[in-house]
Amino acid sequence: MKTPKIGPMILAVIIVSSLIFMPLSVESMTISQSEVYKASSTLDPNIFQGILMQRKMLENKQYLPIYGSSELHRLDMYHPTNYFQINPDGFTPFLIGRAGMYSLVQFLNLASNADLLKNRKIVFIISPEWFSNTGLSESYFAGNFSEEQVYQFIFSHDINPGLKQKVAKRLLQFNFVRHNGTIAPLLEKIAKSAHISNFTLFSASLQGHFTSKVLQLYDAIKMQKVTPNYYPSQYQSPNKKLKGKSWSQLEEMAVKDMKATSNSNRFHINNAFYIKQIKNRLEHFKNYDVHQKFGHSPEYGDLQLVIDLLKEEHAKVLFISLPFNGSWYDYAGVSQQKRETCYHKIVSEVHKGGFQLADFTQFDNKPYFLEDTMHVGPEGWVYIDRAIRNFYNEKS
Amino acid sequence: MISFVPYASFRFFIVAGILMIPIIVSGLIGKRMRLYNDFVTVVMIFLIFYGQPAQFVSIIIFVLWQTGLVKGYLELRKRNNRSVYFYVATALAVFPLFIVKLSADVPALNFFGFLGISYVSFRTIEMIMDIRDGLIKSVSVAEFLRFVLFFPTISSGPIDRYSRFKKDQAVVPTRKEYKELLYLGLNKIFLGFLYKYIIGYLVHEYWMGSSMMNGNSLFSIWMYMYAYSMYLFFDFAGYSQFAIGLSYLMGIRTPENFNKPFLSRNIKDFWNRWHMSLSFWFRDFIYMRFVYTMIKKKRLKNRYLISDLGLALNFMIMGFWHGFLLQYIIYGIYHAVVFISFNRFEQFNKKHSIWSKDNRWVHALSVLITFHVICFSFLIFSGRLNFLW
Q1: What are the pLDDT digits (tens) for B114-143?
Q2: Residues of chain A positioned with their CB less than 8 A from the CB of B187
Q3: Taxonomically, which superkingdom (chain A) (predicted)?
């Protein structure tokens, strides 16, 4: 028999365990500052699915995070990322959002690094389309769901138990969450909604901690190299002609750009988009959203969760409320009255939370703020840039 | 549902590891707790399959079917060794596997099947062959189930033989022997981690997954060929190390599957080094049986021709066994052609000695050529060339 050599096996176990159980702080040290800078505008979904890059970003006051959804991908030259490159003001916008990232998804993003939110300036863009009858759908949530973040939330001590309970209850309303054998019992425990046996809880918590560490290791590996995730057609590079222009000059430029590209229809929707997606099916869209009320939506509750969290953690937040494209939604069957109800509810929710709101809903019935039925276009970005700049320069 | 595919998750290793502790402890004091071993088998089989009810039901039906078949054929064989009983029993033993393989082409048959049926079928077919040859004279249901449901190798082999397995079951290793088995077993499991989860993973992620592999240029396909071959080896050899290592911990010396296959100096050498438990199974139960029957019944005179036909049959069946898909069948034909051609070349070389065997440069060249011939067969196997047909 060969002389047994146990040493290498023990060493292997030690190496693997120390990789897996490496503390979050050590893992985040592996990400270089230049990668964080790159990540600020890549919109790589792995950033929003993870914890580490956002942690690194929140630690560095150079970055101003903007939480939002699909509009962040409209990277034209007026987009904050481009605008503040040409007209620097001491900060770099860091974009966190893609289609389907409603309040609850952003809640998990924010909660994962709740300990870093104190006195942190952040921007949060609210889209009125989120407030549909059903709010965040099962499929949108599943597509943007991050197991890593949910474990972080579950095991976090930085979040008030009352809020934690509310969030756990909300998460359990989704089928795919309820069917996750490890996450569900842990959430049930927090939600106090069902009796969970000690054994189940013990094994779920053991497995949860372990899975969570493995996912963090993956996170660290993925964050070594982020890749851009937007269509080239939605991207313009920063443009020098924006340098040193006053806000009214910029607005004029933006409107001029918009006019030329949205003159084919009465909704002021971008021509290319209109011709490709709408023109031939216009009849089909008549009153197609008529069943939507926008007055009652689970999304109001989800937004409240975000507000509660940010208030509790003493974050400094600028909420931005976007308008609907009024003329389009008139046609689609969502009346002005319904839209106004939605706007008012958002305003009162944000103000009750004691946060600032840049309310652009007065652009509901004015053209050019949006470039299609719902996405911010050049003029919209100019207004948003201005609001962000004012917010950033405020004495805190 | 929680996945419990053997050797595919931390969960599997942790649960298996915990269940192994009593086995290891008793092994180290030179004992074997049969009842506990059986308990572990039941628990593991349950965990592997309960997530997929269809598979769970399939394996129960399969086991009942094969038990009835083996026991039934054994009884018949005792009374009368008629060939027709043997052929019918073999056909019936192959039948469930045939259904599963056919489901690749006929989706309506998807209701039946479970992970590992391809491999478990070998165990029972071999038993029927051995019963026919009089090598197995009695089988108890318990022994049969222990063999067929031996969980470390249930999903993808290696393919053990009944008599060999039974001997390991009967003879409890001494303390000293078990200590060695334990050490070798653990070593193999760690080697498995290195092969499957470090090398295999990296090859898959960064070589096969690199953008260099995109498109159907000659270069990208050529690179893919190497990458896939490496991945196939490290993934499967890693798996085999786990299966053999875990068997060792249970005191069963499951046979090896690989012996540095990419260093083979010719195709014959390759099939003695690659997926050995499978190729030996085919050699013994397809090729040899065919050749033996042909010679005995004097259907053909030319023994080279018999051998060639045996090889063709051997590799054709192996191709079909991988699945009823064109890529696997072409893979089988390819290997048959290569193997037969090599035999011809060897005969030719014996007379004319154009290819010396002792020169190390010639040896290196042989290895290089064989390596490429093999990698090309894996390229066919991978389905990467499917766009061609």
Answers
A1: 999 999 999 999 999 999 999 999 999 999
A2: 9
A3: Bacteria
Closest alpha carbon to B149 in B22, B40, B275: B40
CB-CB under 8 Å, A4 with B10: no
Q: Among partner residues A6, A8, A210, which is closest to B10 by beta-carbon distance?
A: A210
Which residue reads 């309970």 in tokens? A165
CA distance A212 to chain B (A): 13
User: Rounded to whole angstroms, how far apart are CA atoms B168 and B211?
Assistant: 49
Contact between B190 and A12 using a beta-carbon 8 Å cutoff: yes
- Of B124, B376, B120, B374, residue with least CA distance to B265: B374
Task: Give the strand order in the sheet containing A121-126.
Answer: A92-96, A63-67, A121-126, A316-321, A356-359
List C-alpha distances in Å: A96 to A34, A72, A93.
Answer: 18, 8, 10
Q: Is B322 a catalytic residue?
A: yes
Whether the predicted interface score ipTM is above 0.90: no
User: How many C-beta neighbours within 10 Å does residue A374 have?
Assistant: 18
Residues of A in contact with B1 (CB under 8 A): 181
- The stretches of B29-174 forming alpha helices (DSSP H) are 34-49, 53-79, 83-102, 117-132, 141-148, 162-170
Closest to B285 in 3D by CA, of B158, B144, B159, B143: B159
Question: Which among A326, A337, A334 has a CA at the least distance from the CA of A268?
Answer: A326
Q: Identify the structural domains of chain A with CATH numbers, from first to last.
A: 7-140+228-393 (3.40.50.1110)
**Residue A339, C-beta contacts closer than 8 angstroms, at least 6 positions apart:** A128, A294, A324, A326, A329, A361, A364
Kindly list the residues of chain A whose beta carbon comes within 8 Å of any beta carbon in chain B.
1-2, 4, 6, 8-9, 12, 181, 207, 210, 214
| Chain B residues closer than 8 Å to A1 by CB | 176, 179-180, 183
pLDDT tens column, B215-260:
889 999 999 999 999 999 999 999 999 999 999 999 999 999 999 9
Show me where the domains of chain B are located: 33-170, 262-388
Four-CA torsion B207, B213, B218, B221, nearest 10 degrees: 60
